[in-house]
Amino acid sequence: MTAGLKTIIALSFVLAIGFLLVILSSALWKNYLPLLVVATYVIAPVPNWLCGRAASHDDFMESSGSAVVDFGKFLTGFFVVMGIALPALLAHTGDIVYQAMVMSIVGGLLIYGTIITFTMFFQEEQDF
Description:
Elements: H1 5-27, H2 36-43, H3 45-54, H4 66-92, H5 98-121
Helix pairs in contact: 1-5, 2-4, 2-5, 3-4, 4-5
GO biological process, one term: late endosome to vacuole transport via multivesicular body sorting pathway
Keywords: Membrane, Transmembrane, Transmembrane helix
Protein name: Vacuolar protein sorting 55
């Protein structure tokens, strides 16, 4: 799939809306704890990327290094779930209001969805 200028513009628009929702969830109620979600969604793709690079790609065996890749996927899933569970936990304990929780979760999902979509569109194909 070829990614063009329209794809970049659409992804940047959705990313901006996601960041806007997370920032507004903090600023409207003057409680900046929901900004912790941004850190989890920025860190989330890093284990997947690092473990994908660290796995040894052997031309003769297809299953070499799959444990490292699986561990990276596990850590990425952990960070994504933590990005959803952290605002829910903060709202449950009364540190943030429920409206801030909803805005933070929706904004975080938009941010992470944009990161996933970006990597799908701009992934390099390897020719052997």
